[in-house]
DNA-binding domain-containing protein
Amino acid sequence: MTMLPSIGKPATRALQTINITTLEQVAAHDEKTLLKIHGVGPKAVRILGEALIEQGLTFKESPQNSMAPAIDFAVLCDIKCDNAPKKRIIRDYLIAAASGDRAILEDLLEENFIWNVPGEFQIKGREAFITEVLAHLQEISTLEIQTLLTHGKEGSSHGTVTDKQGKHVYYSDIFTFKSNKKDAKISELTSFVVIEK
């Protein structure tokens, strides 16, 4: 493993926060994604690119012709979803909720969708949920999806959301789908959230 070159304290801290501490880990990401991470600027990415070349490595290629909406934050997710439709649904839900993409949320959620935050509140109805998400939308720097698991009608994910000031929100979501079908919509979500103080 090759340690990171000297890219400045803010960029080094930003990468360490999302567990990127070696050039090999940097090579798993594309330049555009890295530039969206709070604290990582063009100079740091240039230095990383030069260090990668010296080690015979390169940045990951940026996805071409993506059907996903344009977002202004980095999405870090190592999980390939091509053969796992419900994992893709969860990933797309997480990105849509973080970006406030009403159309995608409407497409992925059942009309009678229920959102539970134990000990806090319950929201019933897709429209009420989307209204709540849009009312509390934050400008974020990074959405790190650490796990995506699905089985039958159930799924889960956990990860970290980092805002533009570098503050972290740690989440764990438990999903229930309407049916076992691969294209079933999400009918219920239970969320656990820890906000960094």
